[in-house]
Amino acid sequence: MTRSNRKHPVALMLLALAALSMTPHAQAAPQGPSAFLPVPRASQITASSDALPRSFNIEWRGHRSPLLTRAAERFKQSWTSRLKTVTSPGPRAVLIIECRSDDPGFLQPTQKEAYSLTLKAGRVHLVADGPAGVLYGLASLRQAVIDGPGGPHLALGTIQDAPRFVWRGIMIDVARHFMSLDSLKRQIDAMEQVKLNVLHLHLSDNEGFRVESRLYPKLHEVGAHGQYYSQGEIRDLVTYARDRGVRIVPEFDVPGHTLAILTAYPELASGPTAGANYISAMNSALNPTIPETYAFLDGLFGEMAGLFPDPYFHVGGDEVTGEHWAKNPQIQAFMAAKVLKSKVELEGYFHDQLSAQLRRRGKIVIGWEEIGRVETGKDTVIQAWRGSGSMAKATALGHPVIVSAGYYLDLLEPAISAYRVDPQDPAASGLNPEQTATVRKHPIFGPRLADEMVKNPDLKLTEAQKTLVLGGEAALWSELVTDEILDQRLWPRAAAVAERLWSPAEVRDEADLYRRLYIVQEGLRRSGLKDEAKRAAMIANLAPTGTDTVRGFLDLVAPLRNHAHNHVLRGLLTFKAFPPQDFKGLADIAAADSFEVTRFDRSVDGLLAGDVTSAQSLRDQLQAWKDIASGVSALAATNPALAEASPITADIHDLSQIGLEALSAIETKTPSATDWTQRAEAALAKQAAAEKASATIFAGLSSKEQPPADLLILFVPSLQRLVEAAR
Ligand code: ACM
Q: What's the gap in Å between 385 CA and the centre of ligand 1?
């Protein structure tokens, strides 16, 4: 199947080439068994009968470099580790790697990324236009394994692949919680496997400045609480990422989000820097009216530009409240003298100076969408975050755009939530009319509501606007993410975003996504991802006896969504006191999605479609869940760390019992009694209310009540379907 939905001229050409090289009667790749993620643009998997080669002899053709040699070594190592569990591997095979150019654009958005793979028994041929394509071809070859009843086999056939978007990234906030260098390297390893190519590091915020500065050493001495990357570590990270086809884009957020900088250098501040809480810290900002600020930024960004070789440099620019500017007479006098009529115009003045400095250093400026509100150079890249409307607005103004709206993984929505957001759809992410009306009435959020945050189904993108969408970034803000849970907060959901950014827009089968996410996650773990290992250690710490039971329980729940688990923010917004959070509790260990529950969902699909064999597996799951709930209740009697979850385990027990009864009614075709239905519906309604309290960011932060232990029960929607079917 050849899908052509593209705008980038280079890729269009590659696509034409790919189409030419296809066999005339190419069939769609079987969606069932193959595990490619992202789904390739075109593939023809004809057979899957070849045993997995025990290893590959690599034959090089065309361009070769030390970087490619190292990539091939990594591939061979990962193949060996994959083979560890294979009892009877096949003979060695030949792997021809043919790289057609050294691509001077390598590691820039213009890099050559297309590749093709011809998979034959005993012989695999990878052809790529440049080094990036070789990396992606090897990533696909790692995934060209089909699990069948007789064990894993090599997929046979052909793949012609190239990405839909050139910018496919992850943003990690290392300011709110510091992430170790090793942890970042693990994320880069995983990124390579799903063909992501940008790691955007949010390196400074109110909570910390995370890079050693030799010019302004108080930044890391005072502004980092001892947690920062030395310049040597940054160079090491940049080199490590480069080897894996990943660019590091640094972000130093200015002029707001700068309390760490201002604590180190208070002479640059617009107002007081002491005594701020999470919300009032948002009022602090650099003083944009004094020459010292621009001298400081020129020096600092010059130093940082030397450390981070990427042509792009992110200056933040988001969420400036203007409070300290409004209260500072010197700043007000400056604005009057320069005829800057508003906070936004002062922001524009600031970014004009800053952008000119960065352009002189040869950098292309990126900023969060707020910097696009004022006249700024059309070459400035806008990162849309508050809603898809921001993407529409910035592209209408002629800016290249990176989309993060809809891809905020810190909101702890399930993978499909991000997967459904098309980067070029102007109404994909945002508030619906009902949510908008609620927010408008809220005393704090109402005044901050902007048009861009509201879904507008009337917005249409022109073809010219579409070409300005460079791609997107999954964003992980780290108020609630520590180094310990970084891996599991990113993966596997980041892989869903990777597919949205790489694969044709028509690839959107959600059940198939979950099927492949499961397989990809296993592969990522084999190559070093520590989500499961760290989760296991956290469970053992929380419940030294009964780890399996607690593990089973955590498979049935998710943490509250949309920052409702943020006790600091919830406390400030609802005027309630919460105990300090250590991010080691049940809600921190629980994932946003559960494959255990996805399996249940699929069986319910099957049963309701008439497949009676699904009933047994549903019964087994529900019975096991009842036992788990009883088990956790028993543990909670002597383990205070689990006691807070007791109401949830009681609910899981009840709901599982309701599910078993619904199954019996469905199987015996006996409509359930009215009082049973009422009881079941009341139990479901309670869970629906719990879900609703964190269904949007506004609900999450302003709802007075949230469910116990900050946990949601994940199998409620499918249970609802069973109860309806039993009526
Ligand atoms: C942002 O989330 N403040 C960019």
A: 6
Active-site residue (options: 221, 233, 319, 323): 319
- Do the Cβ atoms of 119 and 157 come closer than 8 Å? yes
Angle among Cα 27, 30, 32 to the nearest 5 degrees reads: 165
Burial 301-320 (b: 16+ CB within 10 A, else e): bebbbebbebebbbbbbbeb
Give domain 3-161's CATH superfamily: Chitobiase/beta-hexosaminidase domain 2-like (3.30.379.10)
Q: What is the dihedral of CA 658, 660, 665, 671, to 10 degrees?
A: 10
Which atom of ligand 1 lies closest to the CA of 408? Answer: 2
Q: Are 500 and 423 in contact (CB under 8 A)?
A: yes
Can you tell me the distance from the alpha carbon of 93 to that of 78, in angstroms, rounded to the nearest whole number?
15
DSSP β-ladder status, 145-148 and 123-128: unpaired
Q: Whose CA is nearest to atom 3 of ligand 1?
A: 318
Choosing from 201, 282, 318 the residue with most ligand 1 atoms within 8 A of its CB, the one to mutate for a pocket test is 318
Residue 215 burial (CB count, 10 A): 11
Q: Which residues 6+ apart lie within 8 Å of 647 measured at CB?
A: 707, 708, 709
**For residue range 462-479, what is the model confidence (pLDDT) as tens digits?**
999 999 999 999 999 999
Pocket test for ligand 1, best of 176, 200, 315, 319 (most atoms within 8 A of CB): 319
Distance in Å, CA 318 to ligand 1 centroid: 6
- Over the stretch 429-468, which tens digit does the pLDDT of each residue have? 999 888 899 889 888 888 888 888 999 989 999 999 999 9
The residue nearest atom 2 of ligand 1, judged by CA position, is 385
pLDDT at 685: 98
pLDDT at res. 96:
98
Say how many Å lie between the CA of residue 640 and the centre of ligand 1: 36
Q: Residue 408 in contact with residue 385, Cβ under 8 Å?
A: yes
**Cα of 394 from ligand 1 centre, angstroms:** 16
Domain positions in the chain are: 3-161, 167-520, 530-726
Amino acid identity, position 698: F
With beta carbons less than 8 A apart as the criterion, state whether 135 and 73 touch.
no
Active site residue 319: yes
pLDDT reading at 245 higher than 90: yes
Q: Is the model's pTM score more than 0.90?
A: yes
CA distance 131 to 129: 7
Which residues form ligand 1's pocket by a CB distance below 6 Å?
318-319, 368, 385
The residue type of 505 is A
Distance (Å, rounded) from C-alpha 91 to C-alpha 443?
69
Alpha-carbon dihedral angle through residues 637, 642, 645, 647, given to the nearest 10 degrees: 0
Residues 6+ apart with CB under 8 A from 248: 199, 201, 237, 238, 241, 308, 310
> What is the rounded distance in angstroms from the CA atom of residue 267 to the CA atom of residue 492?
44
Distance CA 412, CA 566 (A): 12
Nearest to 563 by CA among 206, 199, 278: 278
Cβ atoms of residues 161 and 22 within 8 Å: no
Fold adopted by 167-520: TIM Barrel (3.20.20)
Angle at 649 (CA atoms; ends 635, 672), nearest 5 degrees:
140
Say if residue 349 is exposed, middle or buried (CB neighbours under 10 Å; 0-12, 13-18, 19+): middle
Closest CA to 696 of 372, 454, 481: 454
DSSP letter (8 states) at residue 405: T
Q: Quote the CA–CA distance of 47 and 140 in Å, as a whole number.
A: 16
